[in-house]
From TrEMBL:
Disordered: annotated span: 141-182
Annotated organism of origin: Pilimelia columellifera subsp. columellifera
Protein name in the entry: Uncharacterized protein
Domain of life according to the entry: Bacteria
């Protein structure tokens, strides 16, 4: 059993989706996500600008965001969005605990701005969604990016003690004189 299968079922139980809905969407989601990618969130959502356009199922993993559309009268499934998280730009989300909902917005690689509204059952669930989005889309600092690309084991010993030639070539700026009177 791969990582996707082990993490998909607990996420489905946490989301409260019906077993028939999960089994209907599973073949499409399995094609879009690699077997070694863990599922972080599985939730039903709608588009705020098109409430009557059908429902969507949002799947968030550590590497991908997949959204499947279910048409209303015939319940046909169509892949709406399948994107690597690195290719999403201008990702933002708004948490509204009063209405128990989170609105997620992102610009896909083709330049289309996508917005999805996820309803929570209570305020605690909304804050859990906010935490999951923060972990998935938080901006990585320069030290995190360096360690992810090089890793602490690949850095030479005493790497932080070596002088940086580019930095030592620059002269520090002198402070500007301050005049008390004119």
């Amino acid at each position: 059993m791969n990582v996707f299968s082990r993490t998909f079922l607990p996420a489905a139980v946490e989301s409260g989706l019906a077993r028939s809905t999960v089994s209907r969407h599973l073949p499409i989601l399995r094609q879009c996500v690699a077997g070694d990618d863990a599922v972080t969130l599985l939730a039903r959502c709608v588009r705020p600008d098109r409430r009557l356009g059908g429902e969507f199922l949002l799947l968030l993993t550590h590497r991908r965001l997949v959204v499947v559309r279910e048409t209303w009268p015939l319940r046909r499934l169509r892949l709406h969005l399948n994107s690597d998280l690195r290719h999403l730009r201008h990702v933002s989300w708004t948490t509204d605990p009063h209405y128990s909902q989170v609105e997620l917005a992102a610009t896909a690689i083709d330049g289309v701005r996508e917005r999805f509204c996820i309803r929570g059952t209570r305020a605690k669930h909304v804050w859990r969604l906010d935490t999951l989005f923060t972990e998935a889309f938080r901006p990585r600092s320069a030290t995190d990016a360096t360690q992810a690309s090089h890793g602490p084991a690949n850095q030479p010993p005493n790497a932080e003690q070596r002088p940086d030639p580019a930095r030592s070539a620059r002269q520090p700026l002198a402070p500007a004189p301050v005049y008390a009177g004119f």
